[in-house]
User: Fold Protein EFR3 homolog A from Cebus imitator.
Amino acid sequence: MPTRVCCCCSALRPRYKRLVDNIFPEDPKDGLVKADMEKLTFYAVSAPEKLDRIGSYLAERLSRDVVRHRSGYVLIAMEALDQLLMACHSQSIKPFVESFLHMVAKLLESGEPKLQVLGTNSFVKFANIEEDTPSYHRRYDFFVSRFSAMCHSCHSDPEVRTEIRIAGIRGIQGVVRKTVNDELRATIWEPQHMDKIVPSLLFNMQKIEEADSRIGPPSSPSATDKEENPAVLAENCFRELLGRATFGNMNNAVRPVFAHLDHHKLWDPNEFAVHCFKIIMYSIQAQYSHHVIQEILGHLDARKKDAPRVRAGIIQVLLEAVAIAAKGSIGPTVLEVFNTLLKHLRLSVEFEADDLQGGSVGSANLNTSSKDNDEKIVQNAIIQTIGFFGSNLPDYQRSEIMMFIMGKVPVFGTSTHTLDISQLGDLGTRRIQIMLLRSLLMVTSGYKAKTIVTALPGSFLDPLLSPSLMEDYELRQLVLEVMHNLMDRHDNRAKLRGIRIIPDVADLKIKREKICRQDTSFMKKNGQQLYRHIYLGCKEEDNVQKNYELLYTSLALITIELANEEVVIDLIRLAIALQDSAIINEDNLPMFHRCGIMALVAAYLNFVSQMIAVPAFCQHVSKVIEIRTMEAPYFLPEHIFRDKCMLPKSLEKHEKDLYFLTNKIAESLGGSGYSVERLSVPYVPQVTALFPSSKKPHKPKHKYKGKSSCQFDLPFPSPVF
Assistant:
């Protein structure tokens, strides 16, 4: 019970003290004396210059009651302070606020959870008050520290622990709102404050991730959840904090996120990290997205020597950030993103090569294999990010990125590539070539250029078709797939998928346009280069079925997109030359590969004959295919690429009816008005400075050599078009 003052002494006391004393009942259970509180409020409003003294006296009483553990009187004092604070909005409230904050600090310093929550509630009410003028001298360092500590409460009672954490989060939210309203936002964004606020919020957000293990966007919380769930409240506070960030202080709010994720090892698995950065990207202003991407790239550089799964986790976070930023402003970071990712792709390949070379027998081999698989996770994550980012760029930027990536591909014998491969070795170099081409394949997917010159300029086509990228069947597959992405401007590739004899090409409903002058010029300049690549690609000993399928698709796409009469004649000469090479076999190819080439030629001549719709030509091709079906099915794609296909012992004893004859083709096309003089000249790959191939092409010298007879001229008389 408080000490009562006698009547004589009371009359001598200042009026404001008497009014303050009267609001306290003899029994604190009775609560605040409302009638006397109204008198005190009226007095404070009428004489605002007394507010400072009223606040000081209330603070004095509250400090004494806190020390004496008189919680009832503490509650009454804070209720009175709250009412005075809400009622008074004059210039003189500034000194009163200092007393108020001093009392709130006393409550927060106490060890009693109820008093800490009480002080927090009072501070939140104060934070929602808009003062007439900002107070530039007031700082909230203590409150930031104290509220952050409350967010990490480890009280033994779960309910009390949750209550304290909720109070801490609400207190941080109040500090953020108050500093912005006071135009002192610069103070709250200082690193020493952000390093306390952000980890405190993330710590509470992390708890719901652990409890629910939720994946994907969270459902909208109810009003009750927002008040009772620390994780939901922390997430809302985090969103609000980021939403108030500006250009100058964005980085200070994001960097503590990296520190928290590093310290708690949350990159592997990275569900929580992805969740955090989704919140960041959706909460900040769109024009600042590239700042966050730059920070992620910088952190990836800083952690470049960490475990593969950690780096993969960071890269996957980058992918999510890029996916969101691509819908808005990415800013000047486009090349920086690709340059950093390609650098880390090289590092990953280098680490993988080192592990393979340093591996030993026994258990060490198992460890090496595990690291190898982990590095592949990193590489796949990088390629996926490159592809997604590239596919969301406008065409003019995507063209630049294609050139940028192609410039990184190691091409032996040239100095055009800018990627350091000195430490990779042959195996590592091949691996980086595959990774870069996979990246290029992702970027070129969906790219549509009006002219082929725009899609395949000489500076891009020359290294793409380099012999250095033909030494491995997987490299050749990727090169062809990149070319298909750039050539297929009318989405016909899906209709051509799989090498087969098409009964009626008209059923495919091939889409095309009239060949433009730029495309004609492109073929005159680069056609021989394309033919050579296809010719040599067919004769590689390590070809698998997919290689033949892609080579067939290449011939078909050139026919659809780039062919006039001259081009088609060249393509038919190329097909006949491939047939000759399979029969003569100067390269000592296995029988499967020879039959595969024969099947490829059959599929393509069947396609091109129907495209130009010359009846005699179609009849010759159909007749050869019919004879093969009965006598030599291994010369057709439906049979040779089937499991357990019976192969012939040799091709020398076969009758000429099984082969496509140049003289028959020339006769059929010549009768329809085609210029067939060049069909009599066998195709020979041109050797250039760019392609000093050691495999010198041969001139066919077998007994079935004749004049070619399957070419077309555009515009076609075909009903297909």
About this structure: The radius of gyration is 39 Å. Residues 3-9, 211-219, 360-364, 693-721 have pLDDT under 50 and may be disordered. The longest helix spans residues 363-391. Residues 488-516+525-680 form one domain.
